[in-house]
Amino acid sequence: MTTTETFLADATPSTQDADPFQLDVAGTWSLRLDPDDVGERERWFAEDIDGTDQVRLPGSLQEQGFGDEITVDTPWTGLVVDRSFYTDDRYAPYREPGAVAVPFWLQPRRYYRGAAWFSREVAVPESWRGRRVVLDLERVHWESTLWLDDRRVGSERSLSTPHRFDLGVLEPGRHRLTLRVDNRTIVDVGPNAHSISDHTQGNWNGVIGELTLTAQPVVVISHVMTLPDVERRSVRVKVDLASGTAGVGAGTVTATVRRVGANAAPVSVSASFDSEQSRDLVERGMVAGGGHVDLDVELGEDAPTWDEFSPALHELTVELETTVDGAVHTHGRTLTFGLRSVGTEGTQITVNGRRTFIRGTLESGVHPLTGHPPTDVASWRRIIDICQAHGLNLLRFHSWCPPEAAFVAANQAGFYLQVEGPVWANQGAAIGESRPVDAYVYEETTAILRTFGHHPSFLMMAHGNEPAGRDAEFLGHWVAHVRRLDPRHLYTSGAGWPTIPENDVDSISEPRVQRWGEELESRINGRPPETTTDYTEYVQASPRPIISHEIGQWCAYPNFAEREKYTGLLQPRNFDIFADFLAQGGMADQAEEFRLASGELQELAYKEDIEAALRTPGFGGFHLLGLNDFPGQGTALVGVLDAFWQEKGYCTAAEFARFCGPTVPLARLPKRVLTSGEELTFTVQVAHFGAAALEGATVAWTLQDDSGAKLDSGTVGGSTVAIGNSSMHGEVSVAAPESSEARRLSLEVTVTTAEGEQHANDWSLWVFPPAAPAPTSDVLTTRDLEEALEAAEGGRTVLLFPELGAPHTEVALGFSPVFWNTAWTRNQAPHTLGITHDPAHPALAGFPSDGHTDWQWWEPLHGANAVVLDDLPEVHPIVQPIDTWFSARRLGLVWEVGVGEGRLLVCSMDLHSDLDVRPVARQLLASLLGYLGGEGRPAPTVSAEAVRQLLTPSPTADAG
């Protein structure tokens, strides 16, 4: 079989029920790369490029092995904030030709940026004679130019919607299609926009999704818009017609609606028109004339609505029959819609008139196997099912728009989408300054609304992400424009900012536990733990709903075992570098320990971030950053799920959904640390944004210890849990148990419905004795280094609280894990990922802990310093801060060595000041002293000079 015959064999009807007027042109195409841009000048479109490389479409050329080897000069699309890779000696092995590995994002096996030419032959059937032929390419990256034989057809540049080319009326027989695709930056949408950047999906070149040729009649349905009316249980169908002649002639439009998956009879409405009704014809695009017909379809009083609790769908079929010059022509369009309305009520969002709460996460286009987003429904349904299992109800597509399949999957699942234009006009780009991107914003968002606007899952829209420039002025006009164009959605100017009167909803980054630049002054790092703080002041100051922008951003340590999953285009060479750094620090055997301990802290931080939003009466919702990892921007491992949307082993969906979901019990705790016998008073609250109020429900609380023994319990409130989160269900006072030992307790609040369904949430509390037991050992406690060394050399047991300078003060230690990552934030504090320790170590025998950071550690960690132990590799800390993967330093908070004939335990936490009001520090001190009073464990013996050099501040460092 010749190459041409293979190409022709691939051009088959696109569905099993063969449409005689549609051919699938997916399959093998010839490929010729054009890095020097000579193709047009040399008229490659007029040549037969058979015999060159071959590639399959849909697909990208990179994932099929085409492109260049990665070098230090690879022209990446995306900003590299920390450029130490290019200069630091530590990265020198990763800059070697043939072995280049970059630390700032996933690395493709091959890279290509430039023009690529794709060519194949197709056979136009005789039955298509006299019809206009249209080529549809579902998703192209980025600019496409098409030639038919040697005739230039046109060019398209949408990153979000299908590229469509009108080939005109073709003579039956063989024709050559030549497609030039250029994936360079066609419009400056911002180097980090997730639509184009190597930070996320990668700058791929090719075509994905459906590739079809369609033969159209003279008069076609060019666009259908559905305007559902929930109150009237009806839908207005606005049909636009287009003709290749001077007019649309006479004919009939019929709209038929049926309920998907139901036995209800379909409903049809028809309208006729003639040439007299077509006087409003306008010249538009590829056609010479057009017109429109509007129809109202009554769906019936029992027609179900669509939302997250009941995703009832309706299928609309519009059929056109026209008579032009005595000939009858037919054309049809089918789409799915939902009987759904979205609006606002004060500061909250409503869906079908019912208040809802947005619980969203980002979808940033990270798909490592292919390097481009999937276009099949099953792949998107998998992601959405995972999100729903974690209690979420929305995906925000950060600076890009997903393919059709994502909308279809969301429609089926009852899941909301926030769609954005493919723009992050920042880091050098800007809007509102008469740059080409201004027109592109309108061009792309208009195309998105016309293509995907009918999907009920399409709930919200922003122009893009975090703009620079004259953003408020420009986007005020944009919001007004798109709202007039399509009133079916909520609009906000941009994700993150600006806050302008035209917005339906404000997306702002202020109300969250840690904000950009707050570092150790954030609430989680700067204030003792409690669960009473909310964002009421933001709600009171806003006339519109607020959705907090990109909350969380809490990192966990890399999972190096994850590397085996990367069997496709994108490779985790960044993980390879970080694994090497850890091994060079002598801690390769602790990789799994670091991952799990940091992951537990990450989950804890997300829980407080989410609950703070849910506690806020009148709040609109949040967007997480994120449920899954973001492997770009320096490597931001911020998800409880990895880049494949799979669990990491420390947080299940069920655990996450206890504090994130339609119904979440809440406890407003003024503190999480108590002393023996102290009375705790807290308020029970329920954030309930379900399908209806819970009638006959029981709200209860239980206090128990680690063994599961119930210490106290009760019920609160009435029997109804209303929709919302404004009602407090009751105040509870309970006494902490009398105890001479430190204990951990668990407070659980449950909501049990009349049908027996239960929603539960819990919080750990710690109870400490009112006074620590007096030490019985002869232990010297000092802050003086020389006194400590002298005593230890003399055979004494010493507990030293050193005063530290550089390099130790360069490691900013906080309670929370790293925010986003230190490379992208330019080393914002904290620099660590919590602590790890053996909870069975006798030094911690009197201090309740589980091997990772929990809220009882806030007090001793506040103001603490990590000691850099790289010069004492034989020392294994008892309590070890987990350093960021970029540095991989061996750090210590509590560590022990032998000096001379004595023992030296070093603790760089403040366990010596104000102990009368610091019960946690008091108890931890008692535990350490108790350990030092015993036999202890074998510790490496080092010289006093080695300890002195380690702990003596450098001359240029500030002590402390």
Automatic annotation (TrEMBL):
<protein>
    <recommendedName>
        <fullName>beta-galactosidase</fullName>
        <ecNumber>3.2.1.23</ecNumber>
    </recommendedName>
</protein>
<dbReference type="InterPro" id="IPR050347">
    <property type="entry name" value="Bact_Beta-galactosidase"/>
</dbReference>
<feature type="domain" description="Glycosyl hydrolases family 2 sugar binding">
    <location>
        <begin position="26"/>
        <end position="213"/>
    </location>
</feature>
<dbReference type="GO" id="GO:0009341">
    <property type="term" value="C:beta-galactosidase complex"/>
</dbReference>
<dbReference type="InterPro" id="IPR017853">
    <property type="entry name" value="GH"/>
</dbReference>
<dbReference type="GO" id="GO:0004565">
    <property type="term" value="F:beta-galactosidase activity"/>
</dbReference>
<dbReference type="GO" id="GO:0005990">
    <property type="term" value="P:lactose catabolic process"/>
</dbReference>
<dbReference type="InterPro" id="IPR006104">
    <property type="entry name" value="Glyco_hydro_2_N"/>
</dbReference>
<keyword id="KW-0378">Hydrolase</keyword>
<comment type="similarity">
    <text>Belongs to the glycosyl hydrolase 2 family.</text>
</comment>
<dbReference type="Pfam" id="PF02837">
    <property type="entry name" value="Glyco_hydro_2_N"/>
</dbReference>
<keyword id="KW-0326">Glycosidase</keyword>
<dbReference type="InterPro" id="IPR008979">
    <property type="entry name" value="Galactose-bd-like_sf"/>
</dbReference>
